[in-house]
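Cobalamin biosynthesis protein CobD: structure, please.
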Amino acid sequence: MGIFEYHIYLIMAAIVLDLLIGDPKYLPHPVVLIGKVISFMDKRWNRGENRQAKGFLLLTVVITLTTTVIVALIFLVGKISFWASAALEVYFLSSTIAIRGLQQAGKQVEAPLLSGDMGSARKKLSYIVGRDTERLSEAEVVRGTVETIAENTVDGIIAPLFWALIGGAPAAMAYRAVNTLDSMVGYKNQQYEKYGFASAKFDDIVNWIPARITAVCMWLASWFYPAFKKANGFRVTFRDAGKHPSPNSGWPEAMTAGLLGVELGGTNTYKGNVSNRSKIGQPFTELKAKHIHQSILIMHGGWLVFLLFLLFLLSVT
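Here you go.
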């Protein structure tokens, strides 16, 4: 069995594991440990002079440490049993994806919206976005949820699977380390602008290909859903993806907006500070709770098409 075949089998097993159990609290989560390492180093390095150099060193240390530990554990367990080593690698890979978690997050916002409980919907949304949610309308709550599901289809599903295809669980965990770095230090404010520069830029690099693959997979999957606007999805993506502040997030968000026939982007508030983003898509229809369910369908369709592509690769190797 070749290395790519092995990685595809690992990916399939990891997807099944994630769908079955997600991220149970009774199991240690590697990403939590990575976050603790980043926080520990942040308190000691993010001060004084040469913060940009320190930030580059942080990126290097965290990626190297993560990869080394994962490879060492897989190797040592492999000395005892190949199957135990494979199971460990499946667990590590499963911890980098969030298909079940992303669906649950969307449903937890959708349910109170359908019952008319705006307060609960806003609170549930606040768990998955950084924007202020206390005064959001129904349409704005839906927009925040749809944007989050679309964006996280890349870094919570397709990107780790893409890197797993290339380098197995160690590569997927290294990707997750970069993504965690970006979420913790990749801010454009006085405290992190220099220190988080390297992490933010490298996160852009490792997501560049997966983001575009995700948009293509979403579009292909949309052909199984008659209600989705295929031509509009194609047109909006190439017209509006570049309007997003991120070089990558605009691709899945624009494709989702186009397929649903809705408008995303616009004004958000973060800790009282207003942020105006370019609008993506066209408002053929007003954002409603049903669009959360439809964005979840697009998310599932995207990873299923990607998996079908991997199975095709498996059949020809």
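Notes: Residues 138-185 form the longest helix (48 residues).
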